[in-house]
Fold this protein.
Amino acid sequence: MKPIRKMLLAENRRRAPQLGILAVAVSLLTGCAVGPKYHPPVVQAPPAYKEVGDWKPAQPNDQNLGGTWWTIFQDPQLDALELQVNVSNQNLKAAEAQFRQARAVLRYYRADYFPTLTAAPSATRTRVSSRRPPPGSTFDGVTSNDFVVPFDISYQADVWGRVRRNVESYREQAQASAADLAAVNLSLHADLAIECAPASVIEQICRPMLEAGKQVMVLSAGALLPRPELIELAKARGGQIIVPTGALLGLDAVTAAAEGRIHSVRMITRKPPTGLAGAPYLEANGISVEGLNAAKRVFSGTARDGAAGFPANVNVAAALSLAGIGPDRTMMEIWADPFIDRNCHTIEVDSDSARFTLAIENVPSENPKTGRITALSVLAALRKLNSPLRVGT
């Protein structure tokens, strides 16, 4: 029994390194997952605002590329011209080709979910000559057929999530390509686009229109300040960016004063706390506007910094700075005031032609960050484009 025990001990010693290597390999493989699954951050939002009634949730519809919206005008000549754009414009064809390519790539990577079957069948027909047979041949004049049907099946289990991550990535790219196609399509079929979207997508809306030499009416004026290249693009291509008066007043006077010399421009904004909640500047600096029992100044600085810190709240400051002496010389203050129910703006201008102070109290719209007069300002600007009588600068 002793020799056998010694043999077993020796065998276990030989296997010990192998088992150790196997354990290390298994532990390394446990870390081969393709990154953690991404979860968008949860944004805490109140179920309702006290200033408004029922809210309607947004319903994104990127898969609908706009359709033949121009048919609402019931103009056969316009219909014929718009259809010509679809077949003759190379920019639209390029955008459509990129969209088709993105969808094809998505289908290619989605195929990794299923097994792959390959086959290479072949057939060979051979006849041995009876008149001049090969030396030693016993098959003179015999015809033979050889059929080969090899096939191979393979499947890669998506253990670590590589296939799923690839599909998710290319699905998002296809969706972005669809949005780009929609923007190009709109720029070709329309003469003017109205931007009333989040400031982060302003370039996707403006650039196709400006490259086509068209007009864009921009409500997110604050997003223009860090993107001067859009203004240069409009100048180079003959396009135009229109910034409506919006929730402000007196831009005509400020524009006129800018023809001379403006010494200073100061703006003071007061809003209900709900109209400022969630602003990036407040979150970055840990400033709370909840439960206030007195007015609180939450920002003091230049219009450029104010527009960057409050992109959805004070686009009026950007419009004022563009009309006057620029975003770095236009100064502003922002107050959260629990005792008001309107968005209030006061402008103080000192120039060599006039000194004036203007004040406005805007009724909030369904979105407490925006006044009702903003939408009315857009309508007024649109009417002025082709009005036989234009009042104001």
The mean pLDDT is 80. The longest strand covers residues 262-271. The radius of gyration is 35 Å.
